[in-house]
């Protein structure tokens, strides 16, 4: 058996998330079907994490083991020939037997895009959250820095009934980058961390939005972290503005 690592990008708009589900089109299920058609083997590729319905990826990583001797470069081409254009395999490489897309990950980076102009171009609507209302962007930047370091992010985590048993003991994560940046008509949030809880990035953004509106003040972020109570934080922002940018090993 060969253990293969693939890097892929996808437009999550038309998928019910990464993880395979009955009667739903998912990225994992679509990828598994393509691998089966190319190799004749039934495999379920394991991703670095489960992106929700509507969430996009620029650098998702997955691993799977096959017996087929097809070279990685040929497998890449064959899979892209079969996959819908909304999923593209960027790279296929051989990996050590012990390498696992999720368990071996050391850090991940996400990006959230907010379109700030009065009118959102129709060709962007699936890839940004349109929020044209007044925001104090400087206050949001100050607030974003308060989640840097190691914290218990229970206040920013949705209940996840499918969370792995090995993860249930702690909601502590280390955030090494957290910042907002203006890029033309877009306000973009970038965050890098050791790992992320269910809906954590979208809940962070929703809370920073409340700071931008003046409903909360920057120091309230520390209070919310300490509360360890989901109801203390802001609402979950829409999925379609979120991107998994890359995974580090």
Task: Briefly characterize the structure.
With 249 residues, the protein is of the alpha+beta class.
CATH class of the largest domain: Alpha Beta
Helix content: 10-25%
Number of helices: 5
Strand content: 25-35%
The helix/strand order is: EHEEHEEEHEEEHHE
Low-confidence stretches: none
The name of the CATH superfamily of the largest domain reads Pseudouridine synthase I, catalytic domain, C-terminal subdomain
What is the overall pLDDT average? 96
- N→C terminal distance: 22 Å
CATH architecture label of the largest domain: 2-Layer Sandwich
Largest sheet: 10 strands, mixed
Descriptive notes:
The chain is an alpha+beta fold and 249 residues long. It folds into two domains: 2-95, Alpha-Beta Plaits (2-Layer Sandwich); 107-248, 2-Layer Sandwich (Alpha-Beta Plaits), CATH 3.30.70. The protein is built from five helices and ten strands. Strands 1, 2, 3, 4, 5, 6, 7, 8, 9 and 10 form a ten-stranded mixed β-sheet that branches. A hairpin with an 8-residue loop joins strand 2 and strand 3 (56-66). Helix 1 (27-39) packs across helix 2 (72-82) and helix 3 crosses helix 4 (200-213). The longest helix has 14 residues, at 200-213. It is globular and about 60 Å long. The model has no long low-confidence stretch (mean pLDDT 96).
Furnish the topology, listing elements before pairings.
Elements (H helix, E strand, L loop, with lengths): L1 E9 L16 H13 L6 E2 L8 E11 L5 H11 L4 E9 L11 E9 L13 E2 L6 H8 L4 E4 L19 E12 L2 E8 L6 H14 L6 H8 L14 E7 L1
Parallel strand pairs: 3-10, 5-6
Antiparallel strand pairs: 1-3, 1-4, 2-3, 5-9, 5-10, 7-8, 8-9
Helix pairs in contact: 1-2, 3-4
